[in-house]
Design brief:
Largest interface: A-B, 49 and 44 residues
Helix content of chain A: 25-40%
Bound molecules: protoporphyrin IX containing FE, FE2/S2 (inorganic) cluster
Oligomer: heterodimer
CATH class of chain B: Mainly Alpha
CATH class of the largest domain in chain A: Mainly Alpha
Distance between the termini of chain A: 59 Å
CATH topology of chain B: 3 helical TM bundles of succinate and fumarate reductases
CATH architecture of the largest domain in chain A: Orthogonal Bundle
Number of helices of chain A: 9
Strand order of the largest sheet of chain A: 2-1-5-3-4
Shape of chain B: globular
Chain lengths: 246, 221
Amino acid sequence: MKLNLKIWRQQDSESKGGFENYVIDDITPDMSFLEMMDVLNQKLIYENIDPISFDHDCREGICGSCSLFINGRAHGPDKGITTCQLHMRKFKDGDSIVIEPFRAKSFPIIKDLVVDRSAFDRIQHSGGYISINTSGNTQDANTTPIRKEDADNAFDAATCIGCGACVATCKNASAMLYVSAKVSQFSYLPQGKVEAKERVLNMVKQMDDEGFGNCTNTGACEVECPKGISIKNIARMNREFYKAKI
Amino acid sequence: MSLISIFKSSIGKKLLMALSGIFLVVFLTQHFLINITSVFSEEIFNFLSHFMGNNPIVQFILQPILIFGVIFHFVMGFYLEIINRKSRGANYSRYAGGDNAPWISRNMIFSGGVVLLFLILHFYDFWVPEMNYKYIEFRPEDPNRYYEELIHKFESPVRTSIYSVSFIFLALHLLHGFSSSFKTIGVDSKYYKPIKSLTFIFSILIPFGFIFIAVFHNIMH
Ligand code: HEM
Ligand code: FES
């Protein structure tokens, strides 16, 4: 396959950055998108050009590192996948592909396609945990009966890998899907009820302080979420938030 | 925790948007129910309009609340739009918004903006003459003037067309806004199906009902 790539290059967080065009032609449909980037980078290294920085780690859709906004979509065309799970068979020979970093004021660019998503970590630190004594005297989890439906909902929310696709795709750069998943994964369970109030208040406050936008229920986030986290978590978080405030 | 502190948060601002939206929906329903009587009974329409125009509770309590509600809703709408645009930082060079969210949900500020332009015209058409009649010229009250004034307005095909197009935008605004407001106030997802149906019925029935009234009077008189 031969492809025309238009890729965002930016030296560091302070530089202005801009698009560069690259033509690449030894790509097979079986390659993953990141492998295509590897091939391009190898070529750039041989040509003595600074290779393109992009985030990746597990390359199997579980770590949430890989980002990229490809042809106007977070993680490219196709639903329910990360960029490392995107394959070149989704494109045609001769296609033009625009590759940009995830863009949000709260996700500043570090270099090229790499953005700083530590705002998510700070939100998580502000309340995304339960304070349970785990020093050798933990109770067997099965002794606390939990409704199957609640357990399932908590588990579904917990599948969030914090990749930031929801923020990247939302027209408001809102982080509400992420935060609501992190709130729900605990609030459905009895262990999470104890600190429910502080959790939702602190996490929402941190989210606002980081400068994320405001949800307008367009639903774009749940479509792009590689883990299929449902927007119903946002309504649930709103509810928890009001309860905690009253 | 003080209740006011809710509204300092992003969720709280969104809640105000939803509550003011729902308030306007209630007002719209009431307005429609009164207007539709003009299609079948001049007397009932005159009676209701006279009541609404002269009852002190409606005039001096409900009307200011309504005006406040409208202004609050669109000012907050513009404010949130600006905040949300700023949250993006630099814009994408390619953004396929239509691939994952419907047009109506991404263009609330546009559909709302058209409704706002309409509201300005509507105020100029009905509210300004009404205030002038009652509180500036102090003309004697005539309980039978409302119907005549109404049909006179819709004699103009231009006005009738502007009204009709504006109501289509109101329908688009409500098709997203109505159901969205319930999500914002935190209604459980098990009610999403009936809310979706209700959104569709309301958003089509009320705006197209208003269009029907305008076109009816345009054709009949
Ligand atoms: C004056 C012109 C108007 C403007 C500028 C305006 C603007 C907006 C904006 C920007 C939103 C939020 C966008 C979103 O949630 O996706 C919104 C939401 C809404 N609007 Fe309006 N609007 C106007 C008039 C109206 C009217 C006349 C009604 C009803 C009769 C209405 C009902 C609603 C509802 C129900 C919502 C949903 C709130 C929510 O999403 O939580 N709006 N409007
Ligand atoms: S690299 Fe881990 S999810 Fe893509």
